[in-house]
Amino acid sequence: MEHVKVIAFDADDTLWDCQSWFDRVEQECCRLLAPWATAREVSEGLFATERRNLPLTGYGTKAFTLSLIENAVRVSGEQLPGSIVMQLIDLGKQLLNFPTTPLPEVAETLSALAACRQYRLVVFTKGELMDQENKLQRSGLEAYFSHMETVSNKTSREYRQLCENLGVAPEETLMVGNSFRSDIAPALETGAWAAHIPYHVVWELEKSEEYPHERLVKLTRFSQLLDILSRVHI
Questions:
Q1: Could you tell me which of 170, 123, 121 has the C-alpha nearest to residue 16?
Q2: Is this prediction's pTM over 0.90?
Q3: I need a labelling partner for 164 at 20 to 30 A (CA). Which of 57, 75, 82, 193 fits?
Q4: d(CA 165, CA 106)
Q5: What is the per-residue pLDDT across 59-85, written as a single tens digit (0 to 9) for each?
Q6: Which long-range contacts (CB under 8 A, 24 or more apart) does 110-118 make?
Q7: pLDDT, tens digit (0-9, with 9 covering 90-100), for 130-148
Q8: What angle do CA 125, 87, 61 make, to 5 degrees?
Q9: Within 10 Å of residue 21's Cβ, how many Cβ atoms?
Q10: Cβ neighbours of residue 58 under 8 Å, at least 6 residues apart?
């Protein structure tokens, strides 16, 4: 990694907890729809609805809320009371304001990386622009990053575009994230380096097969990123 100039960080479930909040909303939705379906039926229907809507609505809280309501209407046989619809909308709005407290060792590690002045730190995430920007602001981590890029999806094309936007080659880029499917595999495909920090909660659509790679390191703690980079030139 001696040629790395840019370290790009995923946001949700890498810098702060996110999926756990979505899981809580899903559980509450299952409770509200208990008169019409079991929790398993509600969850399976929601996942199918999200998958079906993904090409049209993309990722993010607003897309999730739309799928939440659509699935609820379908599960109830179009008999869903307006009062429950409003509760589902309120649950979606709560996801736009949950606390994005940095995960353990994140702030300290970013501070150390910023202080060494060897790398340009950026956020590279997918989802809805305003929502992702607000999360970063609420986290208190914004000052560590010189650039934030939010895309509708993360494929090798988006990673190549990120490198072009930052004026670096893929081999000069290290991607850090929790999702092997979105953060790791496409980064490796472009020729970048990758650091995988798995999170204990994984969205069903982010699950994928993992594999070893010569440009991949797997970490169990965020601060291990400093250990890896210290072997180069910090």
A1: 123
A2: yes
A3: 57
A4: 25
A5: 999 999 999 999 999 999 999 999 999
A6: 110/141, 110/144, 111/144, 112/226, 113/7, 113/144, 113/225, 113/226, 113/229, 114/144, 116/234, 118/229, 118/233, 118/234
A7: 999 999 999 999 999 999 9
A8: 10
A9: 19
A10: 126, 127, 128, 152, 153
pLDDT at position 94, please? 96
- For residue 22, pLDDT over 50 is answered with yes
Strands 147-151 and 216-218 turn out to be: unpaired
How far is the C-alpha of 147 from the C-alpha of 69, rounded, in Å?
34
Could you please report the per-residue DSSP string of 24-60? HHHHHHHHHTTTTS-HHHHHHHHHHHHHHHHHHH-SS
Encoded amino acid at 188, one letter: L
Segment 202-208 shows an average pLDDT of 88
- Predicted confidence (pLDDT) at residue 233 exceeds the cutoff of 70: no
Task: Report the percent of the chain where pLDDT is more than 70.
Answer: 99
Coil vs helix vs strand at 96: coil
The H or E element spanning position 197 is none
92 and 65 in contact (C-beta within 8 Å)? yes
3-state secondary structure of 121: strand
- What six digits make up the tokens of 226? 């400093």
φ, ψ (nearest 5 deg) of residue 81 = -65, 150
Q: Cα-flanking dihedrals φ and ψ of residue 155, to 5°?
A: -125, 175
Of 166, 172, 176, give the one whose Cα is nearest residue 146.
Answer: 166
Answer whether 225's CB lies under 8 Å from 176's CB.
yes
